[in-house]
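COMPLEX REQUEST
Ligand: adenosine-5'-triphosphate
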Amino acid sequence: MATWSFSTSLRARLVVFVGLLVVALAAPLLVLLPAKMDGLSQRWADRRLIGIARLQAARAWIALDTDDQVEAEALLRNLGSAHGVLWAALLRPDGSPLARWNDPPGDLVPFHPGEERVEHQGGAIVVRVPVRGRTEQNGTLALAFDPAELRARPRETLLWMTTGAGLALLIGIAAAYLIGTIVARPLRQATDVAERIASGDFTASNDLQTSRRDEAGALARAFESMLARLYEQQLVLARKNAQLGEQLAELRRTQEQLVVADRRVSVGRLAAGVAHEVNNPLAYVRANLEFIASSLTPLVQPRAAGDEPGGREDSLERVKQALAEACQGADRIRQIVHGLKSFSRDDDGRRERLHVTTPLEAAIAMAAGEIRQRARLVRLFGETPPVDASEVRLAQVFLNLLINAADALPEGASDRHTVTASTRTGTDGSAVVEVQDTGSGIAPENREKLFQAFFTTKPAGVGTGLGLSISQGIVRALGGRIEVESEVGRGSTFRVILPPAPETAVPAEKPAAPPARGCGTTSLLVVDDEALVGKAFERALGSEFRVVTATSASSALARLATDRFQHVLCDLAMPDMSGPMFHAELKRRWPAIADRVIFMTGGAFTPAIQSFAATWTGALLQKPVDMDHLRRLIAPEA
Ligand SMILES: Nc1ncnc2c1ncn2[C@@H]1O[C@H](COP(=O)(O)OP(=O)(O)OP(=O)(O)O)[C@@H](O)[C@H]1O
Ligand SMILES: [Mg+2]
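STATUS: Structure written out below.
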């Protein structure tokens, strides 16, 4: 299309140009020439008429000399039949007419001898010439001619000229069209080639007519060498692009590593505090267990005669209390270990629907030891919408803010300072998390630089200045933002605002469970190479569900061949056959039960198990397993 309009326009332009040129040259000729020719033809006609008149005058002198009227009239009659003469008169030297033909006007005045004259009189051209006789006296021959006869000649000439100009115009246009076509063809070819090359077909350059010896050939050769250079440049560009892509990927990898490294630095820094945090609940778990053990000893012994009535019930009540506290302590340890595990994990920022309190609690569990030295930690958790985020990365953000808050507080004045972690729903429906401290505040000149990488006011070895910059990167990637309010000497508030997770579809209904064999209660097969783990599940859930244990995947498969279970709870990492291998076998043999497997993990991942866990869409529980959560997963729906 482009080619057509290009060549057309070139050709059309040439045609128009040549047409205009011909018209410009011909028009003045056609306008001026008739006027010019009129004058020319006039003189030419005058001379011609005078010539005719002279010729006749030469024949008329005898009649004049002899005053022979008959002869004179015969002469005029002859004259009148030729040359387009309208009337004629031969006058004597005294002006009296000797002879008249065809009724000439009466006022014919003779001329002075020797005078010739041409005049327009009453629509005719009247020519008078002297007729010289033998006497000294001259007569006059007056002849009137029809001007229409005379004008016919120049008109004819003009017609020829106009036709010639018209022809010249047509020939000019045809020539211009032809030249346009000849000139446009190599250009069109070059355009075609350029277009094909633009669409990536470099073989198109073979169609260039470089062997031609004219300008078109020179153009094609120039075009060809330009293409060769273009091709080279394109190769260079492609190489550079590939390098750039690699560098970009490298940069992204580095950024990812930086995020993980920052998390590890935090974990490293907090290690002592975390150890302390674990040791605290561990201390009372252990104390309580010791107490339980010592309390149980007299209880299991046969009652002695002097025992107080009701003493046994009291002791049992205290044992129950101690057990509850030990459970609480174990829960706290579980939470801390979960936090630690999350923080040292190399996640790829995978996002899930979660409540901000989950990563916030993980971060608080990690930072609690650090904060306790300097402030009282206050939790103000309000309702928040779920967000679509990576739990690990959000926890990293909150941990950075909590450690910054702790760093802004002096040590040893924990009774006068608070660090408040709060959550709420923003007016626009977003999830808002605030970390507020009553510390030093931020100097106005530093506020602009807070989020710059490597900006720190902390001594070397304490801060790298990456915490807020990385946190901002994480929050922005989730579509959120961080706001800061601070007053020097009074404290700071860091506010993380995250968009709510989009509404998700109602989860599909679970496939119907295969009917349990035997009793009507829910049945669970626990597969774990650690026999004590299976036993613990049996003890904890045995009163509510039918619990069977297996210490290897192969023994579990053997059991499944003879018995039916609604749920299988299986460890991911086992020595003989791993969880993923067990699942593959289940899928092959009993696909219905394969869909209902619940995996659990202590976190010791091999790469194969890691990649399985990353794609596993079913339930995956962390050890130690939260029994209530497990109960909810396997309890039959009401
Ligand atoms: N709550 C706060 N109160 C006072 N100053 C703060 C607070 N949070 C951050 N800052 C200031 O912002 C600076 C940058 O914080 P950022 O978390 O980016 O780095 P850092 O804490 O110095 O080092 P890193 O987090 O890498 O260990 C801090 O050095 C500190 O001066
Ligand atoms: Mg920091």
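REMARKS: Residues 1-7, 505-520 have pLDDT under 50 and may be disordered. Residues 523-634 form a domain with the Rossmann fold fold (CATH 3.40.50.2300).
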